[in-house]
Amino acid sequence: MRCVQVTGARLRLREVTRDDVDALHAIYGDPAATEHLPFDPRTPEEVAEIVEEAIEAAMAEPRRLYLLAVTDVHDGRVIGVARLQIEADHPHSAEIGLALRPETWGRGLGTDLVRMLLSFGFRDLRLHRIWGARSPANVPAQLAMLVAGMVEEGRVRHHYRTPRGWRDSIVHSALEDEWDGDRRR
Ligand SMILES: CC(C)(COP(=O)(O)OP(=O)(O)OC[C@H]1O[C@@H](n2cnc3c(N)ncnc32)[C@H](O)[C@@H]1OP(=O)(O)O)[C@@H](O)C(=O)NCCC(=O)NCCS
After folding, report:
1. CATH of the domain at 61
2. Collapsing DSSP states into helix, strand and coil, what is residue 99?
């Protein structure tokens, strides 16, 4: 298994471990952090299951799922979670997802995190296309992806069935040949 570690100026991405379940539950179990996500806040047991699946998926060959803890580079505290999932039928393409603890929002960390995921996907995994789907109402996610260089592609109607009903998604993407290492050209 290849052990991922990506270090930026403020954030570090690393593999999740079983010790991260409580910290990840503080995000996946938080009503504010999951408001725009297509599921209800997770229970600790559900988060533990997600971590087990991620640890197993990390050993798969070829590896398709990267579930990464997002830590504060200075003190190692887990402040978020990031996901990069390579598509089974399109191994040049991956979907990203991200969530940070609400008390860290609004300081540019989400934008940094999208940039780090693009850099990891294009530079390290040699992907061609990276995309993310957000709720139409999720303005912070929209801005974080746009500022990081992911263009809006359009609307996927009834993309997810959520506990609150069908939800459309706005899809953003970045392509390897228009990505210059930090921003869209
Ligand atoms: C999406 C998310 C990661 C963004 O994180 P963040 O650290 O707040 O992002 P940034 O600070 O980089 O902000 C991105 C932009 O949104 C703006 N923004 C942040 N919070 C905002 C809010 N509540 N309302 C309006 N704009 C907001 C910022 O000003 C910034 O815009 P700018 O670059 O023009 O200044 C964070 O909101 C989050 O974890 N949300 C819950 C999970 C989620 O929705 N994930 C996305 C799934 S697609």
Report:
1. 3.40.630.30
2. strand
